[in-house]
Amino acid sequence: MVEQRVGLGEIAREWGRIGLLGFGGPPAHILLLRRLCVERRKWMEPAEFEDGIAATNLLPGPASTQLAVFTAWRLRGTAGALVGGACFIAPGLVLILALSVLFLAGDPPLWVLGAAAGAGAAVPAVAVQAATSLVPGSFARVGRERAARARWLGYALAGAVAAILTGPWLVLVLVAAGLAEIAVRARGRRAALPVAAVLPALPVLGGLGAVAWVAFKVGALSYGGGFVIIPLMQDDAVHRYHWMTDGQFLNAVALGQVTPGPVVHTVAAVGYAAAGLGGGMLAAAVAFAPSFLFVVLGARHFDRLRSNRRVQDFLTGAGPAVVGAIAGSAVPLAASLGEGWQWGVLAAALLWLVAARRGVVLTLLAAGAAGVVAAAAGLPVA
């Protein structure tokens, strides 16, 4: 632990500030946490912070949230983790629930419908950009061996196909890719493979039980965080439980991108559509609870986790499947677009994000403004 004792009030203030200003997803969160903990306050050594990033990326669920919880745990143990994590999550959660009331209302104003349709049209481009940004690091992990690179491509293709076709069963494909890589790298060594007992869907659940189950899958069973949660949620929210239309789901994903804090806040918008504010709060609580548990119970063992050969092999296989799944999620998202002008917005967003490499938040805001213009011009937006 650090030599000076950092007060819980200071942790609440600093982590709350990052949660309020953390637009742009995990890269922005990591940068802000590093500036605070390493550069400005010198609470952590650079190497220790980088080790924290590596360790939290080994866990399922939202990695940047787990990093926020871990850094606060590093300063004040369990109490710090609970306070820091809660304050990091709270600003974005309050904002996304407030926007859900506006954008997912039964009869919203025309300009709101236009803004939602415009921002939603850009969401598939955000998924493509998220996937392409992960490719270099994931591909470098497998090394130069031709067979390993061929397996990488196979895992990525499997993840993409699963995201397009299987919906909630995607998590089984991610786990299978990881287990396959362990088996290949074992090369005859007698090693016990980890077992993941995953239940992708429980159609007998109803009401808040179903909301909790969908949120649990997002928080505890999704490797890679971010956009890999989209295919996990879409089938349940739209097709299985009929909480939302395809268009409303796109709106929820867009809201998760334009609000500060972790992208997993999207699950709160889904919970709101299912059961109002209570459903949104329940979904957020269930989705984020595993992050707190993983860190509070396991932070002392992070070094051992990082050095475990089987864990590394598992992530070498699951990683490219996650990349493929994120890219594949763009297909059903794009299929949800119902108006011709939305495809123009999508094409522009792809150029802006992937070719020009510009920011996600600005892209979604511009797409939303284009939707407002389209609504004012009398184009269909609902």
Kindly report how far apart the N and C termini lie.
54 Å
Total strand segments: 0
Q: Rough shape?
A: globular
Mean pLDDT, all residues: 86
Total count of domains: 2
Beta-strand portion reads under 5%
Largest beta sheet, briefly?
none
Low-confidence stretches: 190-204
Helix content: over 70%
Would you list the SSEs in sequence order as H and E? Answer: HHHHHHHHHHHHHHHH
- Please report the number of helical segments: 16
As a whole number of angstroms, the C-alpha radius of gyration is: 20 Å
Structural class computed from helices and strand pairing: mainly alpha
Keywords:
16 helices; mainly alpha; single chain; membrane; 382 residues; 75% helix
Q: In words, what does this structure look like?
A:
75% of the residues lie in helices and 0% in strands. The chain has 382 residues and is an all-alpha fold. It folds into two domains: 8-87, no CATH class; 88-376, no CATH class. Helix 4 runs antiparallel to helix 11 and helix 6 (146-165) packs across helix 13. The protein starts with 7 loop residues before the first helix and ends in a 6-residue tail after the last helix. The relative contact order is 0.17. It is a multi-pass membrane protein.
